[in-house]
Amino acid sequence: MAQLVAGDSRRFPDARAQRTKPGWVVLLDGPAERVAVRGVSRMAAPAGLVLETTPEDAYRSLVEATRIPAAARAAKALAVHARRHPVARFLCHHGLPLWHAGANPCRAESDPAGVTTIDLGQVRLMMAGLRGLEALARHATTGDGPADPARVAAALSWPILPAYLTRPVRAETARDGALVGERCRQIVATSVQVLQDSSRLRHDVEWVTAPQRLQPVTHAHSDLALYVHVFIERLLHLS
Fold it and tell me: Quick check: 46 pLDDT over 70?
């Protein structure tokens, strides 16, 4: 099993929810706190604080916050999440992973004063899309035949895939009233690849000490990559 190593993870003790004209956001206000996550090594300098929570805890916290129906309560829960868990280098102003366009990171959303924000609607869309992909992967794993249009739409709801793939997939689903298993598996596998690249989750082999040996290492170069790592682990354990 690969050792998980994180970059410069940070949480924001002063994060707070704020209502704006477009909707609720969380302001990552005040100084960020450099943290290490339990069970995750660091590739940067030692953190000022080692959290008692794991990446799995952070993922579950984000699921719970984004499933609260009332927007005001959900935004406040998301602010609590940002105060407790790593959320640096998360989503860009498009609501996509920062490196969705390639090597150069896209800019994060910010308020007029330049404070980085996390948009509740965007995070809700991300988590809904991940749930949709997980459901589609489970469906394809169990071999229950073609996937119905609602299941396909849920898996494509977070627009991380290129149009050259999603356009024919939607057309085939509309034409046939379902999507065949091979296409479903393609959507899931390609989505995982895109998520790894756009969140900067890297898989390497490196020398480690005590004793000296080559070992697979997974590098999370952004905090979003920690969540992507947990999501992929969930897919790998589907039965």
Answer: no
